[in-house]
Amino acid sequence: MRYTTENRGLFMVVEESGMQFEFPDGGTTVKFDDDPFYRNKFNKFPASKGVDFISDSKNTIAFIEVKNCTGHEGDNRWRIAPNNQKRDTAHTSHEVGERESLDIEIPQKVAMTLAALCGVSSFGDRKESLDQLAEIAKAVFEKNFSQTEKKKLVILVLEGNFGTFTRPKSAIMSELQRSIMRKMQWLDCKVSVVDSNTYNKKIFRIVS
Fold it and tell me: How far apart are CA 123 and CA 44, in angstroms?
């Protein structure tokens, strides 16, 4: 991670999938798989996974997953069809195996991310909890997670030219969003599927 300054203040810059994201300073943003607790503890759990970023600010806690498929849309079209409808029929050069379409993968990653937050908080004040992930865990489990003014957001950033002549990308994203929302009813949250043209700049900014 690095920091950049602008007239409006200080921003933290994190990179994922060839994209750069700016998060306003003043909150806490964790690149989940770079966190020491994830690398040294949670990653030892078989099939462990999690979202790319967790961002805690004054008004929101956001679980953010980035899928930059630009230039590789053909290999990823099966992933944008809800409920694995095309996993076994769509052409792809990748080994699909037991992988899931995005509407299944995202809720799974959010659930496991929350499990990791529960895990890091279980260490109390011991050294395992003295990192940024522990700060997020405190916001989730000890402070504001259940307060209605603290919005819980699940955001999928989907880059790639998936639109066709008969079906625009906006319709594909809307269908994905609805399917993820149905699978996220166990969490009081708002689900958004966005790209670099439609995302909410109050949460983060895509700079490249």
Answer: 17
